[in-house]
RNA sequence: GGCCCCGUCGUCUAGGGGCCUAGGACGCCGCCCUCUCAAGGCGGUAACGCCGGUUCGAAUCCGGUCGGGGCUACCA
């Protein structure tokens, strides 16, 4: 039987990193087994759905490099893959269950239910609704026929229990008195999540349901429903939730929860995938940088950890640096050029593109995020902006004017304008002025780049060009009062 | 409150009775390299929540306890 898995986000918010991780695990599982990966939209909540979110979900998944075989925007044999378009089907299932006595119209009032739950809780019993206010089928039918609106609840078999074998958690059992007679169809005729989701899983032939642990205790409901529909239950695998640094469920106050924010912050999709994959899964050996092919080949549900995992930005950033350094230089330039232009708020001329390409290898190994680069190369494409602290720290020292003057003298007449030419000239300057490299070069760096921190000095000067470099040195000399 | 899940360095993890004086990675600290900052190299810091039990032997098995998390809607 071919493996069929799905990810089913609700378009009520941007793609959450936790959902992205679940999507990745499903994708890895499918790809490693010749399976089918499906993207479905669980958009039953018309109040909170936004097209913007749907677009973000699709776009973010694609950005990560995850493709799907059936679903939103690609269609497939079970189209549409959008719950809001399948309400008739859910109603049909609910009515069928009703007809077979497996579900019933519920006339319990919210007050009754509320009171029941309060009493149960006060008595230390479980507050799950057991259907005690259920009325006779004929009575119910009459009331509905006379126009009364009522939700349909599933009649959970009592007494009873549901046991299932979770692929990551092993055997889990829920006694049915922990499971209430939950609503499957609201009184307005719309389906609840539980109904829509399990009908789709059945209809779409889903074989493995991999999802967040927050749905673990809903699983018996889904199993009872599935089997009431006469279908075979899928294999379940519940992934532990992502936590913030304080151990609480990852939320906005911890920083970013939306995947798109990481993209905007200069995280590479390849790094994100690698990081997310290892957040709760281990290939078993002492490896941290793993190729996508390796992941596909080695991913197994049994190797997914049960522990809740804390999202660690530092490690993500480190890994992003690793991936940035692995890039071919021209690929790096291609990814970074638009960011530099955005920062400049203008396009790069072809000469400037050449400068960017020339300095690229030197900033590539210094970047942790793609967005770091614009700031590191800004000195090439505009006037110098002196960083106050840098100026104060370096240019007020007695050796600063000496070093700058000597550099101007040397560079202005340099014939061989190359990295080595610049270096030789400046090292000669060092000997003449009897300054250490540190003391002699820092003033030049500040004069030329505006900061004590920059790409390597000789390369920076070379790429800047003689005219600009010398002009900046002279301007700095003037500013120092010499 | 009830039910369910989970507990190895600060974090992600390896480990599945002796290979564990517990390994790797991030972070942090130190040294080296060095024109700054990074990168890189080398070294260091740091964990089996606790209590019992089983066993010749327990991070590994069992029980309890404590701690964390999830669910407990006509939300998803």
Detailed description of the structure:
This protein has helices at residues 17-32, 51-64, 87-99, 110-122, 137-145, 193-203, 219-228, 259-264, 269-278, 292-298, 313-326, 329-344, 350-364, 372-377, 388-395, 399-412, 419-433, 437-449, 457-464, 466-480, and strands at 4-7, 36-39, 70-71, 103-105, 152-154, 161-166, 170-175, 183-185, 208-212, 235-239, 242-243, 309-310. By secondary structure, it is mostly helical. It has 4 domains: 86-239, HUPs (Rossmann fold), CATH 3.40.50; 252-326, Orthogonal Bundle (Glutamyl-tRNA Synthetase, domain 2), CATH 1.10.1160; 328-381, Helicase, Ruva Protein, domain 3; 383-482, Arc Repressor Mutant, subunit A. It has a 3-stranded parallel sheet with strand order 1-2-3. A 3-stranded antiparallel sheet has the order 4-5-8. α9 (269-278) packs across α11 (313-326) and α17 (419-433) crosses α19 (457-464). The model has no long low-confidence stretch (mean pLDDT 94). It binds one RNA strand of 76 nucleotides through α4, β7, α6, β12 and α11.
